[in-house]
Amino acid sequence: MAALLIIPAYNEAENIESVIAEIRQRHPRVELLVVDDGSTDATAGSAERAGADVLRLPFNLGYGAAIQTGIRYGIECGYETAVLMDADGQHDPLSLDDLLAPVVSGDADLALGSRFLGDPQYRVPVGRRIGISLFSKVASIVTRQKITDPTSGYQAINRRAMAFIASDNYPPDFPDADTIIRLHFAGIRIREVPVRIRQRQRGASMHNRWSILYYLYKMSLSIFVALLQRRSLRKGDAYDAGHESNAGAGQFAGSIDDRKAGASKASG
Amino acid sequence: MLVLVSLLVLLTIVRLVRQKRLDEKYALVWLLAGAVMLIAPVGSNLVDWFSRKLGFAYPPSFVFLVAFLVLCLINLQYSVAISRLTQQNRVLSQKFAILERRLHESEARE
């Protein structure tokens, strides 16, 4: 089965059509799923008109929760591979094959598209750059591998990583260093891949409302909590083993009962 | 004065429960608070004696401390409840979105 391309979108009516059109042009066979995260504008309608399948969340749940919705749907439908891409046009579809390569070959469970590896033509505001470099250092130390861009939302993942994202160990906010650390503890093999990231096409960035002090405090706390939950994250790894058997039955992938069944099956 | 206020509190709580605007589960705590306020003047000598025994030079400060701690605990309990509700709400709306899509798919097939 082909990969499922999941695009979480919140009030991106201006960008979504051109983003979908560009992906369609470069990759005509890819399956497109837009998760409309409770947008108040015409995002869902625009995405449907552009030919994407759309999941409509009844209200805004946050970036991570929107991704999780798409992944849960993808697992139900039996996809083995998924790609996550932002709806604002910053992620260049030209990099999609590079991103998929390590996941398809089995070298990694999650390929993280980094804008800082290779040819960094993307300019990041100073405040954000300090935050990213600080927490990417923390993530690098904990995961014992170099992580340059932990906030990247441009990712390719296999079934193992999908199962982790579908579990409720996945944070509902923006992916950041804490998410990388959680993935690492859950036994997900991460590989960074250089990708082309462009400047935003139109509209305001979703990161602007994060004041720097709040961000530093929140991220430190999230990383601390991830470290505390280290053991339960490791156990949560068993999630997809128990789930493979009923994936085709159309049952809801993320339910707590399924996961408990999976954990007991793997330990027994 | 205090009796009047506590009666008002108790009446308000009973009214809210009757109108189903307040769960019995949460009414328990507030009814208890109202009852304590009502009987507090009766036991004020006892409270005086107890707080001096504990080493408080000024007994009302002991009462305020206890009230403050109890309110903090109630608040914490609410934070926990809100977190749980948020999580349940999230799972529910995710299921809703997926089922809605499934419904459209099967309608389109027919």
- Average pLDDT score of chain B: 90
Give the amount of beta strand of chain B, in percent: under 5%
Outline the low-pLDDT stretches of chain A. Answer: 237-268
- Strand tally of chain B: 0
Please give the oligomerization state of what you see. Answer: heterodimer
Structural class of chain B, please?
mainly alpha
Rg estimate of chain B, integer Å: 23 Å
Termini separation of chain B: 71 Å
Number of helical segments of chain A? 11
Count of alpha/pi helices of chain B: 4
Specify Rg of chain A, calculated over alpha carbons: 18 Å
Shape of chain A: globular
Structural class of chain A: alpha/beta
Report strand % of chain A: 5-15%
Largest sheet of chain B: none
How much helix is in the residues of chain A? 40-55%
Assign an overall shape of chain B: elongated
- Please mark out the parts of chain B with pLDDT under 50 across 5 or more consecutive residues, or reply none: none
Q: Major β-sheet of chain A, in short?
A: 7 strands, mixed
Q: Largest interface, and how many residues on either side?
A: A-B, 20 and 12 residues
